[in-house]
Amino acid sequence: LKNLYISAxxxxxxxxxxxxxxxxxxxxxxxERIGQAIAQDDxxxxxxxxxxxxxxxxxxxxxxxxxxxxxxxxxxxxxxxxEGLARQIQSITGASLQRLVSEKKERFxxxxxxxxxxxxxxxxDGKTLLALDLGRTTxxxxxxxxxxxxxxxxxxxxSFSFDANPDSWLKKDLLTFEDSAVRKIGMELQxxxxxxxxxxxxxxxxxxxxxxxxxxxxxxxxxxxxxxxxSGISFTATAQLDDEEVVAxxxxxxxxxxxxxxxxxxxxxxxxxxEVKVMKEVEKEGEDGETTTEMEEEVETPAGKVYYSVRSSxxxxxxxxxxxxxxxxxxSFNFTSLPESLDGLLQDKPEPLPPLQTEExxx
Length: 363
Hints:
Mean pLDDT: 90
Low-confidence stretches: 1-6, 8-26
Shape: extended
Largest sheet: 9 strands, antiparallel
Strand content: 25-35%
Strand order of the largest sheet: 4-3-2-1-6-7-8-9-5
Radius of gyration: 33 Å
Helix content: 10-25%
């Protein structure tokens, strides 16, 4: 019984020692910022430059005091998507610090900070307002974060997501105007067909300036779709002006000019490198088991990406400067939905009504 008491005493002592050691390894870390927002609106007041890093890419957005707009500095200095930037800022100021996870720099790699992902907010003088590094996302969908050179790792109450490709931060609509403002359309289609139409106001039908093929009339809906495709067109990516695909697209497409009620005109070019088809021999087995060789058309090279350009009759219009900087890729639908030939803009005239019957003629 005495030995039993001794053993129990030893076990109790060991438990105390183990508890002491464990408590040292699992100390509840504290920081006065726990429970507070990652950043307050006032912290970012005066921000003039935002750098976003992710997946080895970097987007730099800067406020241009001359034009009073945000530009993507490392992508042709073109207008930035300020709504997207506002959403990112709101996601940061709307999230809080849930708890302090670690104060050990050697664990940065374990927490995913090797990916070099995060934000840097600076004012006009280059002073850092907020440097926020993003680590990995936890299983419950919350981000591990740290502030610049600090060695403290926090768990945020939310996660953050963005694309650091500079193209993704460009404002995608270079022009915006209402379809109803268009009064005249001039079209030179890829196949060589051409057509000019106009209307007195937005409630009038389109009328062709020249003769149409016999038995044909304008398809008002088809003409209206041309306007809709171009007035609201937005690009998805940029490319160098001398890119082979861009050069090929310029040589294989449509030229369309829209003139507005104030006489401003916008001249569009939209096209793509055409697909290449070849004839190839194909062996086929008939019902009788006999093999024959036939010639079939096969696509050897698919069509290229669609690019468009637009120039304004107003020399000072910023869009003209954008066209001198880059080429703009758009969805293929913007091209394929346009008519391939004049036939796509016409429809058959309705059959004439039979003459009215009268009592005098007895008919």
